[in-house]
Amino acid sequence: MNIKVSIIVPVYNTSALLPKCIDSLVNQTLQDIEIILVNDASTDNSIEIIRQYEQQYQNKIRVIDSKINQRQGGARNLGIEMAKGEYIGFVDSDDWANEEMYNALYNEAVKEDSDICYCYRQQITENGKIYKDSATYFLPVGKITAKNCRKMLISHVTYVQRYIYKRSLFINRNIRFPAHVRYEDMMIDPLILLYANNISAIKKPFYNYFIHSGSTMTETNETKYQDKIKVCQLIIEEYKQRGYYEQYKHEINYLFFRKAYIHAALNYIINANSPQKKIIAQIRHQLLLLDENYRKNPYYRGKIYFFIIDRLLSMQSAFLIKILKKMLKIMRYNL
């Protein structure tokens, strides 16, 4: 069988939600797919559920049973190595896809000869409330130029679950997710965009992102900001190793400012019981190591919100940090 799309699903302790996810994939209207279920050293009965589906759908489901937990990035990498499809898609094991999703994405990608095709997603809470995607997160449609690559680097937010990517982008360009960290998908689009030529889209919410008490989005951990910094540092290293850093220096430094400084600091403040200004100082120090003149970056004043947050954080005031934490709670800010 000529496999059109390989769908990679990292699985870690999601046995209660896993059947809904897998059912949504085996029932896709696109028939020529493979579903790669990667058990990431689960400690619940997820592997038993996976094996049952494997037995039932032997021509469609492939299983990787990893004995070492590598988090989603490492699990996805195992799937990439096994994948045979023309395109690759990623689904989280607590989410589900509309049955038309991969048929629509694949046909659009082929029609437009696209390296990337994406759809919209919607967030669904445990009580059934639905939140639509913000349009500002969407990639443009059409040919990728240096100009719109720069634009995407300074503003884009990656949701790998709503894409299909040509497998050759990962294999031929040696692009992989960082393992053992959160925020691993931040790494992908900044690298893919260096090599992709064309993007297409289906502007329908085919992907359902489930927000529940055990999801990554709702996880409370005051050290997880460190992973955001680590992934941004890896992006910088990759750009330097691949010879693109000087070409996109302003954009990639601004990405670090936005993600590894502003977002990481707010992430720490909202998750820490009692945020410490020394931690904020440490986060800021990472930015200064990269670019001590970051305020001269041409994109620095692009968002007044980031400008104000930077000025507040740079004051290193325990009082202002407490006020900021209260404001974030009122806004129900989540990072």
Structure write-up:
By secondary structure, the protein is of the alpha/beta class. The chain has two domains: 5-217, Spore Coat Polysaccharide Biosynthesis Protein SpsA, Chain A (Alpha-Beta Complex), CATH 3.90.550.10; 220-331, no CATH class. Helices cover 44% and strands 18% of the residues. It is built from twelve helices and ten strands. Strands 1, 2, 3, 4, 5, 6, 7, 8, 9 and 10 form a ten-stranded mixed beta sheet that branches. The mean pLDDT is 92.
CATH top level class name of the largest domain: Alpha Beta
Number of strands: 10
Would you tell me the structural class of the helices and strands? alpha/beta
CATH superfamily of the largest domain: Spore Coat Polysaccharide Biosynthesis Protein SpsA, Chain A
Enumerate the spans where pLDDT stays under 50 for 5 or more consecutive residues.
none
Count of domains: 2
Percentage of residues in helical conformation = 40-55%
CATH architectural name of the largest domain? Alpha-Beta Complex
Strand content: 15-25%
Largest sheet: 10 strands, mixed
End-to-end distance: 42 Å
Helix and strand pattern: EHEHEHEEHEEEHEHHEHHHHH
Radius of gyration (Å):
20 Å
Q: What fold name goes in the CATH topology slot of the largest domain?
A: Spore Coat Polysaccharide Biosynthesis Protein SpsA, Chain A
Mean pLDDT level: 92
Shape: globular
Number of helices: 12
